[in-house]
Amino acid sequence: MLPSSMPATGRLLPTQQADGHTQMALDAWLLKRSNGPALRFYRWDGPWLSLGRHQRQWPEHWNDLARRGRLSLVRRPSGGRAVLHAGGLTYALIWPDAPRRRQEAYRQACQWLVDGFKGLGLPLHFGSDPAGAEASNCFASATVADLVDGSGVKRVGSAQRWQNGRLLQHGEILLDPPADLWSEVFGEAAPAVAPTQISRLDLDQQLRQSMIQSWPDFCWQMQPLNTKEVQELDDELASWSEL
């Protein structure tokens, strides 16, 4: 499945909880610096609304919600539309030398999630909506890069960034979206809560194991940031662009 020229080591990073600027700066830094595939899961300090890299217009009331402290806004290094990060689990996958056929790359980049959720009793399938729909909400449609459950609920929304042949795949795993805030932001009812067996505390651990099994050509190792990398991340964060 994977090119033999790629390094033999895959990097796993510990699950982290931090503000949105730190999380996005770390993913941008990993995209530039990772020599092999890297995977991390994270949660957000408070509710955040991340906007896609090219998303230049959004409803004015989002700014008002931010001013009132209902949420914070941050721009992602990946594309796509707005994602509300609250009550979910986010992942970032860095894949150097991903297949040049992007639809194939997206499918391979998501297969470990399909396998992992199937093992947890929640079969998922790829979406079929065309890319580039006009909705401002990422979860309003499901493309071939997204994963949908048997009831038609989009459970994993994905956004991508290609840079010098490297793929950054962002994914938001929908678990327990806050109904009131979701309605305030998007003007519609929140998607259904995930089944009980999915909303478990060790979901990130379960999905890491699925990645290890799905990409056996790599020796996956847990590697927290070292001192030098923390300094480089601080430099990345200092230059991180605001909205």
Explain the overall architecture.
- The chain has 243 residues and is α/β, with parallel strands linked by helices.
- It has six helices and eleven strands.
- It has an eight-stranded mixed sheet with strand order 7-8-9-10-6-2-1-11, sandwiched between helices. Strands 4-3-5 form a three-stranded mixed sheet, with helices on both faces.
- The protein is globular and about 45 Å long.
- The mean pLDDT is 89.
- 30% of the residues lie in helices and 27% in strands.
Describe the secondary-structure layout.
Layout (H helix, E strand, L loop, with lengths): L8 E10 L1 H14 L4 E7 L3 E4 L8 H8 L4 E4 L7 E3 L2 E9 L5 H18 L4 E3 L20 E3 L4 E10 L2 E9 L4 H8 L16 H12 L4 E4 L4 H12 L5
- Shape type: globular
Q: Which value, in Å, is the CA radius of gyration?
A: 17 Å
Largest sheet: 8 strands, mixed
Ends distance:
38 Å
- Give the strand content: 25-35%
How many individual helices?
6
Low-confidence stretches: none
Strand order in the largest sheet: 7-8-9-10-6-2-1-11
Helix and strand element order: EHEEHEEEHEEEEHHEH
Compute the number of strand runs.
Answer: 11
Main structural class: alpha/beta
Percent helix: 25-40%
Mean pLDDT: 89
